[in-house]
Amino acid sequence: MQKPIVSALVVVSLAAAAATAGAAAIVGQPAPALTVRDGDGESRSLAEFKGKLVVLEWWNPGCPFVGKHYGSGNMQKLQREWTGKGVVWLTVDSSAPGQQGYLTAADAKATLAGKGGAPTALLLDPDGTTGRAYGAKTTPHMFVIDRSGTVAYAGGIDDKPSTDPADVATAHNYVSAALSELLAGKPVTVRTSQPYGCGVKYAR
């Protein structure tokens, strides 16, 4: 019964891809600068994490693909595992007011906390400036930035583009693989993949 849902959401994702065409974080190039408010209203920038590995995770709590990873505990596990190793994990909500996934700062914090989320920071991007600068198309859409500030990976979280939590156990997680290689001083083997999920709900 999930296939029709996935198909419909893929169509949405393709529409989102068209909306963000021409703007993207390019693997092998410096990551776009960002300055955005966090869930506490504080201004955060990529520059403050200079010299660290950084993960950007696009988030929409109403998306079933996001629900797959949070409902299974996978995303929270990844957040805790990698922040415990010194990686900066930034969860970004680019949903616009009136669109699915838009939350006030207080509601966003409460929702993420209620799911056991453990990123370094929750970033709220309701005008879509950061999302569009990175070319974020789906939730989740993942980016890994290396210590030099270069985009080392961009794409899906793994190789199982479904909403089924059972698929997490057998998926190859591209983000974990990239981070493991970077921490070991090795080049990233898989640098890009097709992002999957719900289209980011930018302002229309």
Keywords:
alpha+beta
Overview of the molecule:
With 204 residues, the chain is of the alpha+beta class. The protein has helices at residues 2-19, 64-71, 74-83, 105-114, 129-134, 174-183; strands at 35-38, 43-45, 54-58, 88-93, 121-124, 138-139, 142-145, 151-155, 198-199. The strands form two sheets. A seven-stranded mixed sheet has the order 2-1-5-4-3-7-8, with helices on one face. A two-stranded antiparallel sheet has the order 6-9. It contains six helices and nine strands. It starts with a helix and ends in a 5-residue tail after the last strand.
What can be said about this structure in brief?
This protein is of the alpha+beta class.
Instruction: Provide the low-confidence segments as ranges.
Output: 1-22
- Mean pLDDT level: 90
Helical run tally = 6
Helix content: 25-40%
- Superfamily (CATH H level) name: Glutaredoxin
CATH class: Alpha Beta
Find the count of extended strands (DSSP E, 2+ residues). 9
Instruction: For the record, give the distance between the C-alpha atoms at the N and C termini, rounded to a whole number.
Output: 30 Å
Q: Which structural class do the helices and strands define?
A: alpha+beta
How can the largest sheet be summarized? Answer: 7 strands, mixed
Share of β-strand residues: 15-25%
**Looking at CATH, which topology would you report?**
Glutaredoxin
Rg, rounded, reads: 15 Å
Q: Judging from the principal axes of the Cα atoms, what is the shape?
A: globular
